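Protocol step 6 of 9: fold each sequence in the batch and record its structure tokens directly after the sequence line. For illustration, a two-sequence batch is reproduced in full.

Sequence one:
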Amino acid sequence: MKSVVVFIICLLVGFFGVFAYDRWSQKQTVIKAKESVQVSTKKIPFSVEKAPSESQKAQIISMTGEVLWESRVATESSKLTSIISLQQGESLETDENGSMKIAIQNVVELNVSKNTKLAFIQTLPKNIVFGQNKGTVIYEKITEAPVSVRSLHLLVVLENGSMTVLANEEDGIVSVSVSAG
């Protein structure tokens, strides 16, 4: 009888020891997880009004006809009356008489034709991304960094040379013609 009582006490102490060790190791895992989350999450400042400081600005070289411009914070487009610098997050739209030439210094030159809508999605030096949902644009790449164009549901990457992208929003058709590269 005495050996049965000792056995039960040892069994209970063993269960209690395993349970305590399990709880202690779970707390250590939670502490380590919290530390790793705190290390990996740093606050990155974001501003709707201002583009990232690393982003490059585009310059309108020439324009004819009516051109509509939508800034980063605008809710609707306004008529562009003078040549301005363009930044990431802005967009342009030409009418039936409009056209323009735009350049991002030492990166890419754009010839925008009539009835075209063009968005400057990302202008970071390592990866320039444009959005083109209608009209025709000729992209002439100057640097080694890739230039990407998202047109309707197609993503085209120009690694060198030049290309023409024609987007027909009504028919959902995108035509890409590579003239060099």
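Sequence two, same batch, same settings:
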Amino acid sequence: MKKMKLILTLYFLFFSYSVQAFEFKGVMLGSPPSSVYGSFNDAFCNDAKTEKSKTYNDHSCMVFKSTVAGIPTALGFYYFDNKLWKISTFELKSSGHNELKAALIRKYGKPTVEKNTTVSNAMGAKFKNVETEWVTDEYKMVLIKYNGKISESSLNIYSSNGMKEFVLRMKAYKKGAVNDL
């Protein structure tokens, strides 16, 4: 009997520590919008109004003045069925990319994938771009050094279930648009 208790205890401990929910800035993927209100006093939240916007979220919250690893940014939180599925940064300065990447590695561990590409600006100057990904069964986090502008990086975090829902909604939206021709 004691041996069975020990086995069950070890089994429980192993699985309770190996499958941890993803947390970012005090907010858990899968949590309701109230978790953003609880973590950010200045969150602005609203419901999606159009069919097209409902392919991305039912509800969203924006925090216009925040920081990530000490770098000023705005944050977007996106929900399907009152469950947080995506977190995005906006106007994240690329000058802080290396510090942010180091902080993410300290908190979340070694990245799963790192891709190096070259991007160029309007003047034709070329820059080494880095896309770093952390991927698990529960989430995907993507840090891009230069995202659209040489001056801006981006960090996007997606729940796996939310990505599946997004793909389904996008297909349904596109099918509806095709039927409207």
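Proceed to step 7 once all outputs are recorded. Observation for sequence two: Confidence is low (pLDDT under 50) at residues 4-20.
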